[in-house]
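anyone seen this seq b4? input:
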Amino acid sequence: MLIEYINKAMSKATYDKLEDGSFSGKIPQCPGVVAFGETLYQCRQELISSLEGWLIVKIRHGDRLPVVGRINLNKRMPVPKETVVHG
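predicted toks r here
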C-alpha cells in the first residue's frame, strides 16, 4: 500500500524549469515535499526520496497524512488480542 501511495502522490507532482535550466518539483498535497535536479529525471528521483523521508517523519511522529487518490494511510491497523497460553 505504501508503494501505491508513493506512486499516486508522484502522479500529482508538478515541475518547473528554472532560469538556469535545472528543475524543481513539488507535490502540492504533501507540504514541504520539494526537490531540485539538473535534469527532470534527477529532479523526479530526488522528489521520490524527499517524499519517502517526509512519510517516515510524518508516520514516526503520528502526524496525519493527506489522502492521495483513494489511499488513506491514516487508518489504524487492528491490534491483535494477546494470545493467552495455559499450561
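The beta strands are 14-17, 23-26, 34-37. The chain has a mean pLDDT of 92. kinda curious what u guys think
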